Amino acid sequence: MNIILLGPPGAGKGTQAKFLEEEHKIVQLSTGDMLRTAVNLGDQIGKQAKKVMDSGNLMPDEIMIKIISQRIVKSDCLNGFILDGFPRTTAQAEALDIMLGEKDLSIDYVIEISVDDKILVDRINARVLEMNESERRTDDTAETLVKRLGVYHKATAPILPHYKEKGILQQIDGMKSIEEVRQQINEVISGA
Ligand code: AMP
Fold this sequence. Notes:
Layout: E1 3-6, H1 13-24, E2 27-30, H2 31-41, H3 44-55, H4 61-71, E3 81-84, H5 90-102, E4 109-114, H6 117-130, H7 142-156, H8 160-166, E5 169-173, H9 178-190
Parallel strand pairs: 1-3, 1-4, 2-3, 4-5
Helix pairs in contact: 1-9, 2-3, 4-5, 6-7
């Protein structure tokens, strides 16, 4: 089973991907985590990613497409994967269709976790107050979030119709509790 989790930054994609990973024995592929690993390694992509992520912008499509196409062929993806943070642009969605077709793979569910912008801004402000400096992601500020939300609406939300037309898009209410969102996702997957 292969799943794409979509939704604005802070919607809880990472949290829900972890649940799916545990419950269905499929692997979470978080492009944000991959980039943060590269930042920590300090390699060339990492240096570029640090600047891009801190500014709230997106990494170039070619780099992200290459990272994902090399990742989904690894043996731990055989049982299925959850794409968390990819695709984020129309070009990435189109490239994903092509690479999946070439590998004889397909996406079973595209799940959009929808949350109002205002709630996301309130959530991040609460999180910033709770966390100390060392726990916080460097792109975890209200200012960067507003920028990232703008990027989401402009670059990522336009890919939703692509999946709607294919009949695999499921929208769920991300403003409920973590447990309720988890249940909604499980209902989608079990076909309830
Ligand atoms: P995330 O952890 O998914 O919120 O991603 C953190 C940041 O990594 C994003 O704000 C982007 O700067 C970058 N990033 C992650 N995934 C992608 C992607 N598929 N395309 C472009 N940039 C990405």
